[in-house]
């Protein structure tokens, strides 16, 4: 099953819902970054959150960034998301739901972290991330991007985002994120949801929702049992005037290219580039986000240096 997001509303449009299955993109991220299990889970949760929040963006040029800085062994995680056209080209992006796709990418500071499981037998994502800060940046092409920051509550990510939505965006929300990893490493299932209450939701609706959520199984248990995002949404809101608005595919996609990486090389000090040229060996530069490797020959480096000194 390919990854996708379901957008829905309930309770007379007073609740908005985003639910997804993200196994494919989390597995791709694991293979690209060669993450250990706890990092697969941590980055997978943040990628899922990024995709869900990315689907809330209005324009194809908008970019959402989620950043976690923590004092735990992972060091930090960065995820970005945007809505592109199928194939992931933002520049030629057009409206129309049938062509939309959420493109998400991300990386951990340290891909390999080995820490003991929690007493419950679960991967200790909170322990791997530690104490720190969650930053949400929404670049919508304005002069200043929107940016909000909150302290991490537990480092388990879903809880941290729930806290962020309430305290930074003043939107009462419930966030669930889950990644189930096989002991050998591959991703069994991944997914999550974001439920948001709009300002006119009645108390009766709120208490019904709270009750449902308190009885709900963990999202990984539901996904592992074969439930789809639609099934999960149905289970919570089936009798609450549920309307499924649309389905949006999602994928791990990085828009890096040799040209973009060249710009990064261009920003290296001229003295350091000269040193690389003196060594007379090509250099490999990896894209942080996806791990793709780009080779720059000695001639490439000479051209870069010439262009740099012209400026
Ligand atoms: Zn890349």
Can you put this structure into words, describing what you see?
With 311 residues, this protein is of the alpha+beta class. It contains ten helices and twelve strands. The strands form two sheets. A ten-stranded mixed beta sheet has the order 7-6-3-4-5-10-1-2-9-8, sandwiched between helices. The longest helix has 18 residues, at 37-54. The relative contact order is 0.18. The site of zinc ion has 6 residues, from loops.
Compute the average pLDDT.
93
Terminal-residue CA separation: 50 Å
Characterize the biggest β-sheet. 10 strands, mixed
- Rounded to an integer, what's the Rg over CA atoms? 21 Å
Short description:
This protein is of the alpha+beta class and about 300 residues long. The chain has ten helices and twelve strands.
Question: How do the strands and helices of this protein lay out in sequence?
Answer:
Layout: E1 4-10, E2 15-21, H1 23-33, H2 37-54, E3 63-70, E4 76-85, E5 100-108, H3 125-129, E6 132-139, E7 146-151, H4 158-168, E8 173-181, E9 187-197, H5 203-215, H6 219-224, H7 229-237, E10 243-252, H8 258-266, H9 270-279, E11 283-286, E12 293-296, H10 298-310
Parallel strand pairs: 5-10
Antiparallel strand pairs: 1-2, 1-10, 2-9, 3-4, 3-6, 4-5, 6-7, 8-9, 11-12
Helix pairs in contact: 1-2, 9-10
Bound molecules: zinc ion (ZN).
Spell out the key features of this protein.
two-stranded antiparallel ribbon; alpha+beta; 311 residues; 12 strands
């Amino acid at each position: 099953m390919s990854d996708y997001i379901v957008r829905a509303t309930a309770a007379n449009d007073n609740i908005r819902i985003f639910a997804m299955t993200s196994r494919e993109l989390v597995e791709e991220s694991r293979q690209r970054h060669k993450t250990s299990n706890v990092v697969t889970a941590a980055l997978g949760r943040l990628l899922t959150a990024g995709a869900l929040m990315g689907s809330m963006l209005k324009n194809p040029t908008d970019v959402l960034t989620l950043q976690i800085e923590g004092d735990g062994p992972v060091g930090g995680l960065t995820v970005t998301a945007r809505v592109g056209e199928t194939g992931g080209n933002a520049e030629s992006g057009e409206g129309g739901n049938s062509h939309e796709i959420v493109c998400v990418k991300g990386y951990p500071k340290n891909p390999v972290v080995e820490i003991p499981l929690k007493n419950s037998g679960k991967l200790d994502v909170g322990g791997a991330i530690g104490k720190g800060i969650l930053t949400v940046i929404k670049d919508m092409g304005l002069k200043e991007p929107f940016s909000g920051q909150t302290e991490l509550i537990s480092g388990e990510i879903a809880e941290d985002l729930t806290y962020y939505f309430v305290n930074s965006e003043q939107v009462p929300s419930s966030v669930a994120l889950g990644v189930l990893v096989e002991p050998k490493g591959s991703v069994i299932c991944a997914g999550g949801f974001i439920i948001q209450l709009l300002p006119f939701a009645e108390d009766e609706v709120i208490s019904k929702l709270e009750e449902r959520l308190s009885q709900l199984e963990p999202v990984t248990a539901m996904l592992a049992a074969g439930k789809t995002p639609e099934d999960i949404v149905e289970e919570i809101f089936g009798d609450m005037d549920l309307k499924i608005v649309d389905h949006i595919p999602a994928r791990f996609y990085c828009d890096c290219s040799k040209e973009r990486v060249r710009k990064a090389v261009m920003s290296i000090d001229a003295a350091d580039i000269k040193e690389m040229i003196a060594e007379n060996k090509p250099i490999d530069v990896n894209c942080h986000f996806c791990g793709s490797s780009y080779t720059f020959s000695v001639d490439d480096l000479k051209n870069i240096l010439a262009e740099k000194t012209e400026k």
